[in-house]
Description:
Elements: E1 20-21, E2 27-28, H1 37-72, E3 78-84, E4 90-96, H2 121-129, H3 136-141, E5 146-148, E6 153-154, H4 158-165, E7 175-177, H5 179-183, H6 190-204, H7 208-226, H8 245-248, E8 258-259, E9 266-267, E10 270-273, H9 285-297, E11 302-304, H10 312-322, E12 332-337, E13 339-342, E14 345-348, H11 352-366, E15 371-377, H12 386-397, E16 401-407, H13 411-420, E17 425-429, H14 438-446, E18 450-454, H15 472-484, H16 506-515, E19 520-525, H17 530-537, H18 548-554
Parallel strand pairs: 5-7, 10-11, 10-19, 11-12, 12-15, 15-16, 16-17, 17-18, 18-19
Antiparallel strand pairs: 1-2, 3-4, 3-6, 8-9, 13-14
Helix pairs in contact: 4-6, 9-10, 9-17, 10-11
Amino acid sequence: MAKKRIRSEEIDEGNPYLASQDSLGEVHRTPDCVSGFYENSVKPLLDKILAFAGLAVLSPVFVLISLAVYMDDPGPVFFTQKRVGKDKHFFALHKFRSMKMSAPHDVPTHQLSDPEQYITKVGKFLRRTSLDELPQIWDIFCGKMSVIGPRPALWNQEDLVEQRELYDANSVLPGLTGLAQIKGRDELEITDKAKLDGEYVKILRQGGFKALFFDVKCFAETIQSVWNSDGVVEGGTGEKNRRCAVEEFEKISTEKHRRLGKTDISLSPLGFGCASVWGKDMISDQQAQDLFEKAYELGITYFDTGHSYGNAEERIGKILKTSEIVKREKIVISTKFGTRNVNGRLVHDVSPEWIRESVDMSLGRMGISYIDCLQIHGPQISDFTEELYGVLEELKEQGIVRAVGANSFDTEVLEFICREKRLDFVMLDYNIMRRDREELIQRLYDNGIGVVAGAALAESLYSNRVFKIRGKKDIWYLARAMKNFRKQLFGGWKYRFINQVDGVSGSQIALGYVLDNPLISSAVFGTTTMRHLEENAGAVGVEMPAGVLERIRSI
């Protein structure tokens, strides 16, 4: 690949990697951007040690995978692809072959018209678990790659290579994972990827313990993305051949919205859960805003959060204040009260004073004048006093709250609410693994109480993804599953077949089942990745393959 000159107008005045440009257009680097002892000596040594240990420990796995690949589709076990290495020199990157021998070479999967026809059965498993990436440990041992660094570009990705040149990111060894993997992986725009790769180079060349600790941090924080079951489409945008609302479905129209009980509130069929994991530092403010805005663009206008969900309400407030896309009057916001922070601990509190204070705090955090839906979070039967009902009615009369409800997965509490008929709606656990809720949902509906389906994806127990621990987010999801789905925790295998249905994903089937119940006003799901958001949004209007619903109901 010919080295492209950088035009003067392309020089970023705030770019620390570019100091000046001569009359021929060549860029001169500042002394701070020159590689040092850590990059030239310590980092390569650590790469060698880690790669050698990885090859030794994983050698039995290499043998088993090699046999499986060959038996599934006879031919070479390894797949090599021309990639751009350090200083834009090409090198052969190694992977376990996951595609048939007849598949086009050097073409990213997402650019194939029908990639599924080329992927082998073993290949699907390897990609889902990222085991196809293991041979790159050999590339690291040979000094062609590093454990941490910019992901190697395809030989024909001139746009990415050119952008990286602006930030000197082509002058380091490509890596198995890097800063871009923390910030969004292949969902990032090329320009954003290049800037993040440049940020890594800047820190790397500061050298010393700071560079070492940052490498360790990158590895620890991105292993959850590199080794998760979602996979990465190298050289692409992170999109796979799946249904997603942006390309294959019409946006969710207001005609499809569903009334919430007897209220005058209509909810989008799908709701976006801005829950605890969304309100922590596991994702950045910008990632949170991008997800929120994308959900809105996809027609999701119901957003569920809570007072105790970290800084989730503050993030929503920032989005409503700064977003040029999301309009307050176009969305329905649901939040919760019932927990109070006391010396770092969340304690249950439904006193009238705390209800009013909690509501005031939520309004202030989000910068709004009213709350559409207010829920008591995890109530006990003893909480439902005339005093509590009085405060809730007062908030409605004052126009501060439009509808009041409860968020509970406790059957006794839900039965009590159904009998009392004092609330406008409930959010309960309803999904393909909680079909026993359907009789209760019918009675709630008959009593004029709207029903929102929480945990609509059953913590993805049907895919076994919840048991794959790759980082903080996964620990949080598993803990929540153990709390809310103890009885169903190990029963997900019965539903694994929904992940194998042609033309529709497992999550779309799971959400589609919930939406097939006309008594459900909205099905709420949460995610921290753009691809999952778009995939889940595709559940609205999805045409369920024949026999799938019947098979689910027969379990």
